[in-house]
Amino acid sequence: MVGIKSYGAHIPRFRLDRNVMQLALLFLGFAPLRGEKAVANWDEDSITMAVAAAVDCLIDENKDRVDGMYFASTSQTYALRQNAGIVAAALDLKTDTRTADFTDSTKSGTAALLAAADAIAAGSLNSCLVSAADCRVSKVGSNGDYTYGDGAAAFLLSKENVIANIEGAFSTTHDFVDRRRLEGERTEHMWEERFIRDAGYMKFIPEAVKGLVDKYKLNIKDFSKVIYACSFAGTHSALARTMGLAPEQVQDPMLNNVGETGVAQSLMMLTAALEDAKPGDKIMVVSFGQGCDAFYLTVTDNITKMKGKKGIKGNLANKAALGSYEKYLAFRKLMPSEIGIRGEETLYTSFSIVSRDNREIYGMVGTKCKKCGTPAWPAQRICPNPDCGAVDQIEPYRFADKKANIFTYTSDFLAPSIDPPSSYGFIDFVGGGRTGVDFTDCDANSLKVGMPVELSFRIKFTDEKRAAVNYGWKGIPIVS
Amino acid sequence: MAEGIKDKVAIIGMGCTKFGERFDAGPQDLIVEAFIECLEDAGLEKKDIQAAWWGVHMPDISVGRGATILGHTLKLPFIPITRVENFCATGSEALRGAVYAVASGAYDICLALGMEKLKDTGYGGLPVAGMLGYKMPLVNFNLSAPGGFAMLATKYFSQYNLNPQEGKMMLARVSAKSHRNGMLSPKAHLRREITVEQIMNAPIIAWPLGLFDCCGVSDGAAAAIVCRADMAKKFRKDPIFVKSLQIAVSSGEEMLYTKWDGSHVEPAYRAGIAAYKEAGIKNPREEVSMAEVHDCFSITEAVTMEDLQFSPRGRVKEDIEAGRFNLDGAQPIQPDGGLKCFGHPIGASGLRMMYEMYKQLQGKADKRQLKDPKIGLTHNMGGFPSMNIVSVCIVGK
């Protein structure tokens, strides 16, 4: 039976306190929610978050067996150029991998997961990675502005050694217009909240649950967790009562500590549920978009072997306050902010370089000398070891998944940055090789020589003239 | 068997503009200003110049690429002119072209002229966007010049167990010394004494470097006319002779391999060894009377003292504290105030350094005049500590 072999998640490190938002936005009305929401760093988007969740998911997995990669988002970076292709390149998946983007509805995350499961069941894929991420921007002071958070969840689906079997699914489609956005628009439009609550969530989620229960002759009382997407905290609670769920059966929608994460919400909740699951547990998942996807899983004995994931727990524990709503606006480029005349200098994006050196730039694959074993990134045809110097005795060597330590660093107020100072340094990789990287998700004052660093796929710079978001690997210093 | 260039070439004329934020002057004004002083100092006519080397690092800001602008601006009569560029060592590269051309026997008299017009960018610091090509921004860090050198300071402090206070104090003394000298230089950009306390308390530019750890950003030009050593005294009684002019360039080992300690500049050490060998200098600490080194940042000067073997490895702090490099010390460094006070119009800096050595050796350095210097050295560095070009030139009477 097809199931989930591994899971992963990503929640951005910054959290924005809704009280801080309220202070800035009081003139527009009251906040619909309390607590905080997770907001992407300026160098994150749905692609980078999908990569981060996938990296977490692929820990200890054999990447060579992966032959499918489905990316889901309603805030995908490119409208033309496959976003899943960028995720696959960052993960350095094999080129004979099937990739697809699932977009436009918040139920696209579950659509991607079910499509992957079906492809594996049909025998056309062996092992498919699904990563769902959303990083949406909303009109200032809107319901979405307060409610939405940024996050990602990833799953590796397979027939073998699964931690949870996908037992069955039931889907509905209704051209129900709660939210919409036309091509070219940056922020969405939302219809009346009461309509979305009463004619949407309260109607379609019970309908999907009933459909699944009836189809597979299930009893809702047998589920240890029932997961259903919802952006309103009150409605989420009301649904539990309506469907007769006991409090312990209801999976926390994380609205008060992460926010509603679009395509990722129900899947992040599934990751959280799996983190606490025991063998034999039954879990139901219901997404919400223009209709719902509902499916259920049975947890296997393999769940006890899962370890070393950041998952939801690890990501929730790693947080820092963003501090101000204005900083959020600057990060999302919702407000023009001064980065100096130096910041107006043009960096040119050459797509022939991006294509030719794709594995090097996106996959952080360099070279390793076959003669003396010296690794090098960027790739070198001539070995940089002065005692070797072998020519073309090289094999591909991926750096992105290697541990490293800070060799030296600085925090630079002159280099243009949306979030100065720009911290960067040289890092020495465990196993050899040295390179310069930008640091991200770090406090400048915490940097030290020798500090461990892990690598993270991030936006390097955007080149609006050439419709280019340029990505690469940066270092995240780990504070012990 | 290569013979080298020792004592084959003499400098017989030099010129240097006032350095600074020359909002009053365009790039061609600066070229003319340096050239006319140089020509008059040499006592030559324009027609005597047989070939020229022209240095400008960022011509896209000022005059465009190629060598034509020098011919056009100075109305040089169809002579060979070559434009050279080698990062911040561009000025020394222009001089090297002229000196080696004369040493080769191809010409009797050549011109080297370097200029940079930086203050038409609209911002402080050097433009670095695109300087390493289209690919590097896709794979490298978002670096600035101070950041590149700040990493040298971070590593130096770490390697030699200096806490930030101790390290920054060492560097503050370097800058304070240069500011004292710069006050005595009429052509310098920054001519104000700055106390160690002011330097320590200045805003951070790139940790651990503060504002006064960074050199100024200026416009300027400088020029030299060189000729065959055996004909030099026909033009003036006090020509200066080139003892050696060497450069060394990074091999990639520093940035890609893990052996480099990150707290010194390997090409500086290598260029120093090559220059001392050619000039016949056995003990640089004792034999080099004075030097103008590439103090783009205070840490660069400190580390250079060790790379050029003026101070033992890891012990420059003791020499700085003892005042060894002050104007009245045993081995004055930056007698004119250095890049710190002149600023760094890139194409001009290497020649500006030589201008001070030339004037000092001729006894014409006015209030900065050192007592009977015998050997002067210029050290001009381009790039970043991890990847660079270093030029070392030694001159004497």
Structural overview:
The complex is a heterodimer of chains A (480) and B (397). Chain A has 480 residues and is an alpha+beta fold. Chain A folds into 2 domains: 3-331, Peroxisomal Thiolase, Chain A, domain 1 (3-Layer(aba) Sandwich), CATH 3.40.47; 345-364 and 399-477, Beta Barrel (OB fold (Dihydrolipoamide Acetyltransferase, E2P)), CATH 2.40.50. Chain A is 24% helix and 27% strand. Chain A has 12 helices and 22 strands. Chain B has a domain at 9-121 and 219-226: Peroxisomal Thiolase, Chain A, domain 1, CATH 3.40.47.10. Chain B is α/β, with parallel strands linked by helices. In chain B, strand 10 (375-384) and strand 11 (387-396) form a beta hairpin. In chain B, helix 1 packs across helix 2, helix 3 packs across helix 15 and helix 6 (164-182) crosses helix 12 (298-307). The interface between A and B is large, with 52 and 44 residues.
Give descriptors for this structure.
heterodimer, A: about 475 residues, alpha+beta, Peroxisomal Thiolase, Chain A, domain 1, OB fold (Dihydrolipoamide Acetyltransferase, E2P), 2 domains, 9-stranded mixed beta sheet, 5-stranded antiparallel beta sheet, 22 strands, B: about 400 residues, two-stranded antiparallel sheet, 11 strands, about 35% helix
